[in-house]
Specification:
CATH architecture of one domain: 3-Layer(aba) Sandwich
Strand content: 15-25%
Structural class: alpha/beta
CATH superfamily of one domain: NAD(P)-binding Rossmann-like Domain
Largest sheet: 7 strands, mixed
Bound molecules: glutamic acid
Strand order of the largest sheet: 11-10-9-8-12-13-14
Helix content: 40-55%
CATH topology of one domain: Rossmann fold
Length: 429
Amino acid sequence: MPEQNGQSLPSYLNPLEPGPWGSYLQQVDRVAPYLGKLSKWISTLKQPRRTLIVDVPVELDNGTIEHFEGYRVQHSVARGPAKGGIRFHQDVTLSEVMALSAWMSVKTAVVNVPFGGGKGGIRINPKNYSASEIERLTRRYTSEIGCIIGPNTDIPAPDVNTNAQTMAWIMDTYSANTGFTSPGVVTGKPISIGGSLGRVEATGRGLFVVTIAALKDAGINIEGARVAVQGFGNVGGTAANLLAEAGAKVVAVYDHTGVIHHENGINTSKLISHVAQTGGVAGFEGVNSISPDEFWSLPLEVLIPAALEGQINESNANNIKAKMVVEGANGPTTPKADDILHNNGVIVVPDVLANAGGVTVSYFEWVQNNSSFYWTEKEINDRLQPIMHDAYLATAATAKEHNVSLRTAAFISGCSRILEAREIRGLFP
Ligand code: GLU
């Protein structure tokens, strides 16, 4: 184990340790040479500002008690309140939540919304529990992290396996504990309690805007462009549908129920209804089923990993024949795979840029909650579009200027903004 000041580093600070936090640390190290005098502050990016681990005891429907481990990590509040989702997944670890919170800091800075980065999670497979068990879990977890969240301090949102209903329970529990209704404590809420129009589709819509801009930059026509998507929820499903409407051919979709393929293109709007009814892509008519290995090796213009971290790694990166990977998920490509793709000439549009549409509309939701004045869906989409488009253009220009990948370019701009704020605020005391 490496040492710092003669002391062993905890495993989550060990950059040699595989996993999401190790990947994030490597990404930060790559931008250090481009930060100029701001690099003096880089160590402040290498540890989260605040980490909370909570026990979440839940009485199950059968009367027994089960304990779950929950986390809320605030990586940075230099530019504004911590902001980021909460996920319920059996693989959630502290290292993962730390990395996800750090990627949120970079993401909010890349699109220049006035937030820091945070993330939360509970290690649970929610599919094994009833809706009322999940409600009790959510409310107890909210109470346990209630000491650090709030509309001006740390604002959760949906992430993997959480949704508008989860946010409603969080908002209600937080409000009950504080004694007044606080819509701005979470974003991604139902519309009836202060949610924003367009929020559900926002990540997928932002991904679509960035993909169109990246295709144009690479001289690839959207008409007939072959697209494959891993993950067909709010992000993958919305992006695939918008790309299909714009003329692309969605040839393959991979989710937890299987991989479907059709070389002439899959009807994405019918697939969205099928997934809503059955819970997955399996059983969709008129398509072939292929293996995950075949999915990763398809000849494509655009590959969209929109599921979990580490899906593109050393085992499959060399097989990827897509011209472009656009990251809908957070952290889907490991640093080693990133290098392989770069060497093979595959353009990677990184998560902190590509999936920033969700948090951008979360910002709009928070602004609407703070002013109690609500915008139309058109206003939301019209404001989202230029933010995503301009963030892509700025990132591409930085990549060209320094001759680096789009990921390093996005990290240069994101980390510079965070560290500029850090420097001008100074360290207390
Ligand atoms: N969970 C989403 C993300 O990873 C949204 C976060 C938010 O809106 O705060 O970007």
